[in-house]
Specification:
- It contains eight helices and two strands; from the N terminus they run H-H-H-H-H-H-H-H-E-E.
- The protein is an all-alpha fold.
- It folds into two domains: 81 residues, RNA polymerase sigma factor, region 2, helix turn helix motif (Rna Polymerase Sigma Factor, Chain: A, Orthogonal Bundle); 73 residues, Winged helix-like DNA-binding domain superfamily/Winged helix DNA-binding domain (Arc Repressor Mutant, subunit A, Orthogonal Bundle), CATH 1.10.10.10.
- Strands 1-2 form a two-stranded antiparallel ribbon.
- Helix 2 packs antiparallel against helix 3 and helix 6 packs across helix 8.
- This is RNA polymerase sigma factor.
- Keywords: DNA-binding, Sigma factor, Transcription, Transcription regulation.
- Belongs to the sigma-70 factor family. ECF subfamily.
Length: 186
């Protein structure tokens, strides 16, 4: 698909944008907290990527990683220009929930409360650990790609992920969340 897009195939270009727009937009939205700014950053990501497409060379990194790196650089620029720190957002707001039609309303409320609680606990993690969890667990990015995005070795990413998951488990235990249900519930 990338080779066809490099040759100017309009359908291939459209397919690249259609395939990668949602994760790039979600990444920008999770970092800015603003749908308008996320839209602009995602657009700029694709403008830059498509402008550089003739020079793009396949590497061990996926095209999604390439786009994510551009997006993260644009987010850094976004905050530099505004001279402020990143807006902390509730990650649960940007995850597309899978609605189980067999779920009873009372179970759905508990599930929503648990997602909010998990998001709150994620915010308690150190920045690098939270970022690894966002990329690896929430976005499904491969370890090697996360390593490139964060400028670390794969071993360092594995260690960060392991520490983050252990810290989250401890936070879950401290807050009475076990096995997907709050302690004493159901």
């Amino acid at each position: 698909m990338i080779a066809k897009a490099q040759e100017g195939d309009r359908a291939a270009l459209d397919e690249l944008v259609t395939t990668y727009w949602p994760p790039i937009y979600r990444l920008a939205l999770s970092k800015t907290g603003s749908p308008e700014d996320a839209q602009e950053i995602a657009q700029d990501t694709f403008l830059r990527a498509l402008a550089a497409l003739p020079r793009y060379k396949e590497t061990n990194a996926t095209f999604k990683t390439y786009l994510s790196r551009i997006t993260l650089n644009l987010i850094i620029d976004y905050y530099r220009k505004r001279g402020r720190a990143p807006h902390l957002v509730d990650i649960a707001q940007y995850n597309e929930p899978i609605i189980d039609t067999s779920t009873r309303p009372d179970e759905a409320v508990v599930s929503a409360e648990q997602r909010r609680e998990v998001s709150r606990l994620l915010e308690l993690l150190p920045e690098e650990q939270r970022r690894v969890i966002e990329l690896r667990i929430l976005q499904g990015v491969a370890i090697a790609d996360v390593a490139r995005i964060m400028g670390k070795s794969s071993a360092a990413i594995k260690m960060l992920q392991q520490r983050a998951l252990k810290k989250l488990k401890d936070l879950f235990d401290e807050n009475g969340i076990t096995g997907g249900r709050e302690a004493g519930a159901g």
